[in-house]
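Researcher: Here's the sequence for the chain we discussed earlier.
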Amino acid sequence: MPASFRFEECELDVAAYVLTRAGERVRLERIPMELLILLVQNAGTLVGRTEIQALWGNDVHLEHDSAINTAVRKVRQAPGDDAERPRFVETVVGKGYRFIAPVDQRVLSGGAQPSASNIPLPSVGDFPRYCLTRGKQEFLLVAGENMLGRDADAQVHVEHPSVSRRHARISIERGRAALEDLRSLHGTFVNGRRIETPTELKSGTVIGLGPITLTFLLVPVSASTSPVNGEPEHRTERPS
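Model: Thanks. This is the structure I predict for it:
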């Protein structure tokens, strides 16, 4: 069986895809979890931003610098790290990141020591793809909570005066996606109808954030190497 890794009061169980801190489970979205696994597996070694960018896959078009910064911030929050005085994740300016805490590895069954070659890192292709589109813009959604709004840390950042900073939330759990309004001023809509309670989303559902509309799509894994809806490749731009 794959090993787990211990660092200070945390334990990262790669096989179970679980992080605990002082015995309490810490929820991490898929990308931050994969980034944490990547850093811990390579503890003491610089992991470049280009290597980290590959976690999103070549077919996902987003602002990678912002996405990487957000993922690193969430990785640091999980064990209670401080970017100014790091105990776990060190920034190498212009290069990447290094996991600097001492790491203990649990021995694999059969006595073999774990290594990056025998600990399977979950593949991007192992997960269904959920996204929101607006014209040629595409926003990747991850398992867990996805914030929509004007907040700089929102997974779906929509810069528009009618959109609240924390306007709505899409929760993806066990293959189901639900949209919830977060007491926004101008309302959240599903197929033109304002919602008051969490509402399940289906592929093709049109979501309204005030006057801004986006389309929710589930992209089958088999189609994950093709652009959504046959659109040509592009980089994501934030809506205005």
